[in-house]
Amino acid sequence: MDPPSPTPSSSSPSSAAAPPTPPDALPASYPMQSSVSNSSSTSPATLLSATPSSKSVADVQANGNGTSIIRRKITSLVGFSNLPAQHHRRSVRKGFDFNVMVVGESGLGKSTLVSTLFNMPLAPPRAAPYSSASAPKTVSIQSISSEIEEKGVKLRLTVVDTPGFGDLINNDDAWRPIVSNVEQRFDSFLEGENTYNRSKVTDSRIHACIYFIAPTGHSLKALDVEVMKKLHHRVNLIPVIAKSDIMSDEEITAFKARIRADLEHHKINIFETPRYELDSDKSMEEKTSIMSKIPFAIVGASSEITTPDGRIVRGRKYPWGIVEVDNEDHCDFVKLRAMLVQNFMEELKEYTDEVLYENYRAQKLIAMGVSQDQSVFKEISPSSKMEEERALQNARLQKMEAEMKMVFQQKVAEKEQKLKRSEDELFARHREMKQQLEKERRELESKLAQAELERHAMPEEKNTKKKFSLRS
């Protein structure tokens, strides 16, 4: 056996002769490093590009921010391709949680369908139907938890039932206990996230809500529309037509079309199968087939019966024939199970966590007066930081300049008003003085005229006196 090769270090000739990775070959989010660095500060991407034995194919793309993103496809074995196996090992060890709520009127087979989905009875047999005197006054919420195992995979299943829904005379507020229960579960999870030990938080959020529609064959009831409008922002809504075996294929097709039209008209969102870039044509075809069956026409039956040809199937036996639950020609149970359990259970949980719960959490925090500063999520770049600071400084200078202009204009306006008042006062004083002088002039002229009259009268008086003296 050959001796093991020594571990390369930063002082080995091979590592010293390796050319450094150019700056433009690093990912956009990778921090720039100096040209001289030791092996401890060298990133894995740098080692891959610097090692002659490893090969990679790079695809450079530019995002909307002008930053280059390098996507590399490694042609040599590194080992991180085993991450799915590691995730599978951890998931099997920890197990899975799944919470499903069933909403619908009594007698539509909610418990039977859930037992059929997971191939085991999850709830004890129901008691005899209640009389009118003992009928519940409101919708109640019942939660049943069970741990089931299949091929070594454990699932902690919680089924939330809503007995009493639609059974009252006045069902205007039938949605309130259901929505309140969903929001209470959100609040409980939010409170658990704020504790010091979040590892023990139990995920009690509703991951899927199966809404049962009565097989009337007409359209959605006003109660169905109102409840689904209240629920579709809080849960993944999956509508199903209960007991579809009482309708013909033509009636089911027409009923589905009316339900889809009502959902679109009232803008009610239902869960849709996600589409991914790596989906194969077969996977895309399967997803399209599942979505085309919504709302699912289902038949629930947990008992096994024997067909005339000797097969043992799950279904219901009627005088006219047998309805097989697992036969896609008879009902859509297989499609419902494929969406809810087999293919998209993790997507249901992911959408609940990342969209529905986050929206509720944001609304809750905003109502409490807590706002999020979105700037903390921005990538920090020295050049962009300088640009932002320059823009802030320019804005500050422009604001100061505008304030100085405003103050200057205000001072000028005040000075103009003061000068105008002084000018008006001077004009008023000049006018008064002119009027006074005119008055004095008129008085002097009148006095002068009086004096002239008196002067002309004085000689006549003297002549009169002289004449009188001569006669005497």
How would the blueprint of this fold be written?
Elements: H1 13-17, H2 44-50, E1 56-62, E2 68-74, H3 83-94, E3 96-103, H4 110-117, E4 142-150, E5 153-161, H5 175-193, E6 208-213, H6 222-231, E7 237-241, H7 249-265, H8 281-292, E8 296-297, E9 304-306, E10 312-318, E11 321-324, H9 333-343, H10 345-367, H11 382-471
Parallel strand pairs: 3-5, 3-6, 6-7, 7-8
Antiparallel strand pairs: 1-2, 4-5, 9-10, 10-11
Helix pairs in contact: 9-10
Keywords: Cell cycle, Cell division, GTP-binding, Nucleotide-binding
Main location: other
Biased composition (Basic and acidic residues): 417-463
Form type? elongated
Q: Per CATH, what is the topology of the largest domain?
A: Rossmann fold
CATH superfamily of the largest domain: P-loop containing nucleotide triphosphate hydrolases
Query: What class, by secondary structure content?
Result: alpha/beta
Helical fraction equals 40-55%
Strand content: 5-15%
How far is it from the N-terminal to the C-terminal residue, by CA?
Answer: 187 Å
Number of strands: 11
- Calculate the mean pLDDT score and round it: 79
In N-to-C order, the SSE pattern is: HHEEHEHEEHEHEHHEEEEHHH
Strand order of the largest sheet: 4-5-3-6-7-8
Which architecture name of the largest domain does CATH use?
3-Layer(aba) Sandwich
Computed CA radius of gyration, to the nearest angstrom = 46 Å
CATH class division of the largest domain: Alpha Beta
* Unreliable residue stretches: 1-55
What is the overall number of helices? 11
Summed up, the domain count is: 3
Major beta sheet summary? 6 strands, mixed
